Amino acid sequence: MSKSASRARLADIIRNRSFGRGEITLASGRKSDFYFNLKPTMLDPEGAALLAELTYEALRDEQVDFIGGLEMGAVPLAGAIAQLSWLKNHPIAAFFVRKKPKEHGAKLAIEGLAKGESLAGKRCVIVEDVTTTGGSAIKAVEAVRESGAEIVLVLTMVDREEGATEAFAEAGLPFRSLYKASEFLNR
Q: What UniProt keywords apply to this chain's record, in alphabetical order?
């Protein structure tokens, strides 16, 4: 399937499985009359494959070592992308950032790294399912930067177009999205 056909098919899947109308309170605390819940798309076999494919293609020239982000939205994405990158002979390892470090066991804030492995000096992409103001991704950026990694990009599947672009620009972070909310609202 061509990139444009993959993108169109994935938009259909998102529209049918993950987009809705109706009043909702977002993670940012804002109220909205539409929502994206990308979990049904990320956990659908075809949706997961297309998200991984399009994300992998978007990162192809970035020389990325790791991909991850804040739980829960980043977990299925990072895992699917890691698997596809291995199959494409260009491995990108995955991790995720806990919203709150575990209070037992290793008490880690960043999960997915082997014992003795570190993000220090690694080129990382922060990935997110849906971005409104960018607050969740910024939390992940802060944790990953604290570990010594370089953030090369913040990539979201759907940008709600409600301030994230400006917030990331202000923070000096490159930001891209696969889709914009207006692509779903204007149809």
A: Glycosyltransferase, Magnesium, Pyrimidine biosynthesis, Transferase
130-186: per-residue pLDDT in tens?
998 898 899 999 999 999 999 999 999 999 999 999 999 999 999 999 999 999 997
Verdict on whether the full-model pTM lies above 0.85? yes
Q: What share of the chain is helix, strand, coil (3-state, %, to 5)?
A: 40, 25, 35
- Which residues are documented as binding site? 98-99, 102, 104, 128-136, 160
Measured CA to CA, the distance from residue 138 to residue 44 in angstroms comes to 27
Structural domains for the chain: 47-186 (3.40.50.2020)
Residues comprising the binding site for 5-phospho-alpha-D-ribose 1-diphosphate? 98-99, 102, 104, 128-136
Say which residue the tokens 């895992």 belong to.
79
The closest of 91, 27, 37 to 65, measured between CA atoms, is 91
List pLDDT tens digits, range 20-64.
Answer: 998 888 777 778 899 999 999 999 999 999 999 999 999 988 899
